[in-house]
UniProtKB/TrEMBL annotation:
It comes from Thalassomonas viridans. Keywords: Magnesium, Transferase. This is NTP transferase domain-containing protein. It comes from the Bacteria. It holds the Pfam family NTP_transf_3.
């Protein structure tokens, strides 16, 4: 993107605040932002977003996490509620078809085992082989190891991801 996606402005509010409001509107009472400049610093540097979830799990020990990236400017509370409800009822990781995140992730034995194998047992400094490159496990690797289900979103447009300036401009045209 070339700039911090959390600081991009959507209708007079930055994307981090927009995302936090989405979670609040979904009924999430404790909203935690992970990352070195936020509430929960990464326990393992340069290991990617799954490592951020690991850091939150280690710091808070929540019953579950509803992980939401800041680059989904068309996401809705209704869609997140659908995801959260399906995950709570099934007690499985839950995500939208074709997208590994947003992700409802129960903190259960499967998740603990995956995180232990990925981060605790293999604590050989992630990133040391390829400096500057994220080296932690992917969401796909996580989901291959934990029971999961996927939800077909009512409106697939909510999952429009903005990773480039061009995608951000397309999204801005949609929410004006």
């Amino acid at each position: 993107m070339g700039e911090n996606k959390a600081k991009l402005m959507r209708g007079g509010v930055d994307m981090l605040s927009f995302s936090k409001q989405l979670l609040a509107d979904t009924g999430i009472q404790e909203i935690v932002v992970s990352g070195n400049d936020y509430q929960v610093p990464d326990l393992i540097a340069d290991a990617g977003p799954v490592a951020g979830i690991y850091s939150v799990l280690q710091h808070y020990r929540p019953a579950a996490i509803l992980a939401l990236p800041v680059d989904l400017p068309l996401m809705t509370p209704a869609a997140l509620k659908q995801l959260k409800t399906k995950g709570e009822l099934s007690q499985k990781a839950c995500f939208f078809q074709g997208h590994n995140i947003p992700l409802y992730l129960p903190n259960n034995t499967y998740v603990e085992l995956f995180m232990s194998q990925a981060f605790i047992k293999n604590k050989a400094a992630p990133g040391s082989a390829n400096p500057g490159k994220k080296s932690g496990p992917s969401f796909k690797a996580l989901l291959n190891q934990v029971p999961h289900t996927c939800v077909v979103p009512d409106n697939p447009q909510i999952l429009f991801n903005t990773n480039t300036p061009q995608q951000w401009q397309q999204a801005k045209a949609r929410f004006k």
